[in-house]
Request: fold
Amino acid sequence: MLPRCPVFLLALPLLAPLVPAQVAGAPFTFEDLVRLERLVAVDLSPDGKHLCVQRAVPDPDRNTLTSALWLVETQSGAARPLTFPPPEKGWRDSDCRFAPDGHRLAFLSDRDGTPQLYLLDLRGGEAQQLTRLPGGAADPVWTPDGRAVLVRASVHPDCPPYPEGEACERRRTEQRQSSPLQARVIDRLLYRHWDRWLDDRRQHVLQVPVDPPGRPVDRTPGDRDAPAVARSGPRPYALSPDGRELAVVEHRDRDLATSTNTDIFLWPIGADPRRATAHNLTQDNRASDASPRYSPNGRYLAYLAQKRPGFEADRWVLWLYDRSSRTRRPLTEALDAHVSEPVWAPDSQRLYFTTSLKGRGRIYVVDVDGGPPEEVATAEAHDLAVRPGLLVYRGSSLSRPDEVYRLPLDRNGRAAGPPVRVTTVTAPLDRFSLGQVTELWTQTADGLPLHSWLVLPPQRPPDRRAPAVVLIHGGPQGAWEDAWHLRWNAQAYAGAGYVVLLPNVRGSEGFGQLFIDQVSGSWGGLPYEDLLRAVDQLRAHPAVDPRRIGALGASYGGYLVNWLATHSDRFAALVSHNGVWDLRSMHGETEELWFPRWEFGGDPWSSDQYDRWSPSRFAARLRTPMLVIASEKDYRVPMGQGMQLFTALQLQRVPSRMIIFPDEGHWVQKPGNARFWYASVLDWLHRYLGGARVDRRLLQLQGSHVR
Reply:
């Protein structure tokens, strides 16, 4: 899957109707967006009375994002800061986890250069650094007895396992950093991923003693990644309630770049780690298995699984493994939707999870004894946590960035009332006038329902038609949902005077697996036809000037923009961000090769679909002014794709500009870079569509500009 832009602040359509209250105020701009404080993550205390919230403050002038941890009362919302990273340093305190006793927090901080594990006693005192791992730490998980924390870390497999290998690890790291010779020697695929190069180090799970502090112990030793580098998912390991078994997502196939076969491996805890042997729980499934979650009573292990090997967008189904009878069964087979983020109820009798249906996120619950899953709330939720009578989650909408909400539950685990907002991190947004949000429905050419979101400019004169922009999501197996987005923020475009259309064309999640499947082998076919249908609906809208419509997209969305540029004359301006241009060269440059193999039925030398669906074959048709954006650290859609496109545009004298970010990957994440990105995109749209003018000072560069 070509990924969607990361959604740090995601959907929460709690309030009906979908139209936000129209308060007199200035339109919301991209400058307001990049400066708005963000609620990034949340953890709930064992007794449910407190939250640990990660709040991030962007500084576009310094191009930094500083995050601190806050303690929030679940009922009242009263908050106080726990950590105080200096804004000028750009430090990030993150991934806070309450200890089982509720009095201590484990968290990560990069104040020493790399993320390391820290411990904070909530009853008083300074944070204590627990690790000094050369490659840093990630994904902290407490042991049930509260005496240690598990973390993911990089190790050299030719060093002895921790703790004996600690000195060897430091020596190898120092040698690598100080060597005058820097070269990459590669003997197999996968050799780079997302935005980083891989090397001879492996990911392992280390157990870090806390009470008393001590040296880390490697719990998954060996010359393999445990957890897996790719497709391991969030929180890719879990510890049984008795602390005697560790479930880890691993990928032990030889061809990591062409296989999606991740499995759940069970590692014994307590034995000598150097002699420990892991058991493959899901060996019979050649597709992906992920997200292991032990029930609180220890009887069950829940996990997610797909059926079709090689297809990363296959439906995720929730499975239940009974550890006593050693039997397993699916719990959501009848639900035609992807399951994600499963979490157990305290009584081990039900599981909650998130999914997407018809352009909205949902929270569902399913009982372990059987019965169909039931909807609990309409919310694009993340960081779910459940306590007796209480469900807490993080979510947002197209008109509200992430906040924390609590939902009361009855004795059967169903909603006992509406969600209540706990935090007010994004309260400054209330002073702005936001655009009205509605939904549009039409039909595809073959009669399927076709859904779009529509956002109107907040202060449009009723007798004047406005320019419009069509935002095309990535994936292609992705979706536009009622969700706040940092890159494709509909309110920022609406605040600049544009009607904003967000269509869910073929391949979009939440409309059934068949709707998802139909994009494969038809990249420029069915989705393109769906998009034109949605655009026809947009052109007929009384608020829209049909002569001034632009299209923007990233990744697969950028591909569709490139396809539009060579197949349609309906648009006055285009923006392609990290978009696929030439499928043959893309196959040889990208890293997760299972993706193009599935999408195009093989490799370029065995399938004609690479030529059939490459926009580059139709380069002679380029006519529409286009802004091309690429990133040097994007290894999913490498920079060469944008360079080839820009060359074709320039040689044919099509008005065009290319922007390259040397320090970004598939997404533009640094606040200063994001501000320049938005300024450049909206300046391009202003030139050809006539939306709001951009302050020229925001377009000034310290770097190079080839004129």
About this structure: Residues 3-23 have pLDDT under 50 and may be disordered. The longest strand covers residues 544-554.
